[in-house]
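Annual report, structural modelling task.

Input specification for the cytidine-5'-monophosphate complex:
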Amino acid sequence: ASATATVAGIPLSLVSLVTLTVQNSALTIVLHYSRISVPKDKSYNAASAVLLNELLKGAISLSIAFRNAVAGTASTSGRDYAKLETGDSLDYRRGGQGGDGWDPQRIKAGARRLMGEVFSRDCWKLSIPACLYVVQNNLQFVAASNLDVPTFQVTYNLKILTTALFSVILLRRRLSPKKWFALLFLAAGVGVVQLQSSTASGSSSSHGGHEMNQTKGLLAVMCACMTSGLAGVYFEMVLKGSKADLWTRNVQLSFFSLLPAIMAVFAPDVSLFGGASAPSPVTARQPIFANFGLWAWAVVSIQVVGGLVTALVIRYSDNIMKGFATSLAIVLSFCAGIVLFDFQVTLSFLVGTAMVVASTYLYNQPDAPRKEGYTPLPST
Ligand code: C5P
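The model returned the following structure:
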């Protein structure tokens, strides 16, 4: 069913990949601007933004999962029930169209069904990517606060490497020499960009009166790359290795995110998060959504869209294709960075970016099936 899913006749996998590309570019720029455009003491709490992001994603996923569950109770016999058991949300929807309306009986049955699915025996599995994503989403703010837009975007592309590494470990995916070469080429490209960036600005720089610590930013990016690769591959493994619906899995993910996200809001300061650009912990004097202006809401909205689209990409495509979308985002954000932040175009930056994009392209070229020897997990 996933191969034929479309939106206005366009494959859903393509729609979600294009949307993710635009979302990636927009997020990097808006996130960076939201942190550096205001004085330190007027900045919003990043951990609160992460919490809000999880609450909104959870609410949206819950409404879709609930709608699907209610629609699914329309015909719980014969062919439709068999489809429904596969957990394909599109089939749920179809079942509901011929349905018996939203009568209280069905709503009750749908709610009961959804509760059973969300709190199923294997729901605990989502606690692992949930915690990892909360850490990653907080680190993203540290990185965006301490690095310029293109450096953040390009170094964050290293998550293609970590995604490949965890795909080998968790999904037992075998990578051809060509793909490993592409990955090394990618790492080299990222290095070229980092080199020119550090010689141009030093290890610590100021941007519009906002102190930026490049070492801290790079450390945050590296950690975020690790959690991104592990969480993404783990989520793919759980999603494609079971029959549960994507939206049910998303509800479970958001549910398990809440506790760590709340803990991050009230956590004491630690060195990586410390300093003016950090997701400062909430004090008794400061409400958790203090200084939550238009830019903060823009960041949260873009992150919510990104989270939902990421889930769709993993469901209808995979983590590797997600990496390809990210490489396109580099080109877009680079162009936007020139216009918005007066970023200096240097030859080495262009060469590095070209290497990153070329290697991502090479990595995504399919090998002959016999050579690669990759057996995909069953996709239901
Ligand atoms: O770095 P990466 O592209 O893997 O980031 C994925 C983002 O998507 C994270 O912010 C994560 O919280 C979000 N996500 C989500 N729901 C999923 C998978 C990822 O909200 N099912």
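The beta strands are 6-7, 10-11, 204-207, 210-213.
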